[in-house]
Amino acid sequence: xxxxxxxVVPPFASTRLPSLQMGLLKxxxxxxxxxxxxxxxxxxxxxxxxxxxxxxxxxxxSVSLIGEWLFSRAAFADDAPPAEQYLQVxxxxxxxxxxxxxxxxxxxxxxxxxxxxxxxARWCAGIPxxxxxxxxxxxxxxxxxxxxxxxxxxxxxxxRIVTVFGGFNTQDGMGxxxxxxxxWVDYVLRGEAEETFPALLRSLLxxxxxxxxxxxxxxxEDGIPHAEPPVxxxxxxxxxxxxxxxxxxxxxxxxxxxxxxxxxxxxxxxxSRGCWWGVKQKCxxxxxxxxxxxxxxxxxxxxxAELEALSERYGVLDFHAVDTVLDPAYVGDFFxxxxxxxxxxxxxxxxxxxxxxxxxxxAGGVRILQPGIESLxxxxxxxxxxxxxxxxxxxxxxxxxxxxxxxxWNVLYGLPGETAEDYAAQARLIDRIVHLPPPSQYGRFHLHxxxxxxxxxxxxxxxxxxxxxEYSCVYPAGTALPEIAYxxxxxxxxxxxxxxxxPLDAGIAxxxxxxxxxxxxxxxxxxxxxxLTIMDGRRPGSARAxxxxxxxxxxxxxxxxxxxxARQIRAALPAGPGRGLSGESIDKLLAxxxxxxxxxxxxxxxxxxALPANRNW
Length: 617
Prior knowledge:
Arc Repressor Mutant, subunit A
């Protein structure tokens, strides 16, 4: 048996990461004797065409569906909606587009109508498609129209080739609508494909077209999609190592810059699938993992061996963990064993990690953390089903920053059930915590398919749920947009007036600006014997020193480690002559710290906000 498949990574996937999905499929296909696959990085070619920096800005997604719209003419030809329709919808963002990308409205239209269709035609014409039995496309977020455009042109060049779509955009009913609406799509894989895709290739080589494989869907002769339910890979130990060789070969051929979008290349690294927290309680706004939320992980020993093999093979020491969330057991079992290495990691984590765990992650090479903070209101966090509190999130920000890790986090608002006080309390808090890392993004939450809010819209207080209007500017008339869309518009039955979020918006904007100015805010303390001196530089030009002596110093340092009650602090204080304090005395000290803005209190628990000036905690 001999056969070769092409695996295409379409725009707009970042050029800073090889494709884990296609790297895994290439390795999986290669396990069958006589079969192989080649990964074609059309996203790198697209970046070379548009400009590397501009391309990465599009990947960042600051303008809704602009990547999809830019490829819609190439994907749908005369059936694509007129360009003016999208420009009218995003008219308030045209100035932002001009400033960020350097494109006028006329230049945007020229890109969509001429430049990108020419790029698609030129790139597809340069590949010998007749050598392949099938071509697979991965599609996540704004890769859909680029994938459809490339697939359509490939089918025109080589009609016999079989096209297969997979990735997050094909999950559940979305993939079935691709089969119905776009005749150049032959098969859709909904779910994990390491076993299904090679099995599909073997069947095609054997001349079979009607198949029953996990997650595979195709259009029957009756015009109705036939689909098998996806079955998750039960054993992560059997997943092969990804093959990223084609990425590095393409990057070298295109002379790809070392830095683009302020980022260097990182290798995608996978230790688990699914979300262990979501198995217990999925966050109400989260649509990740679709309906494949079963949690599975590789053993730490297997993950360590793979890490070493990838770094040695490709000469890259920086890794981007694609896990939905870090398994807490990995803190010791994995990161505890690589502290002597020079690896650097990006990892998504829960914010309830303890100080000692954050210290271990920093020592193990974690450089960037994406914690699921989302809010600094405990009431809002309960609505989100986050399982955390305002104090939990502040503790995380404090110690992650102390240990030198970059924290990328969001503030969401506009949730069903929120109140104006939820926003006001966060706005009041900001002036106390400007020395901690500000949120990378903030704004109203987006309603995503597969989230509990989407599945329980009416019960959650959401009405008028409908696809973002931008989808109608991208896809042809007759496309079932409610089946294809991932992001939806809505109204709240009981909405908080938009003005209520104004002070929070303004506070976050000031916070972020203070971190880009010449002198960042700070709040630190130095301990010397039974004297503790706090240096408060949170307000520009008004730094001050605050001296705490004896019992006050002991109490402040005790509440700085963990959110604590007066009773817990009393039990933790060191014993000795002159150190005995009543609970009432501790309460008075803690209340004074909170009144002075040096600590934050919630439900009788206090967290000191100042960071230790020394690096030995």
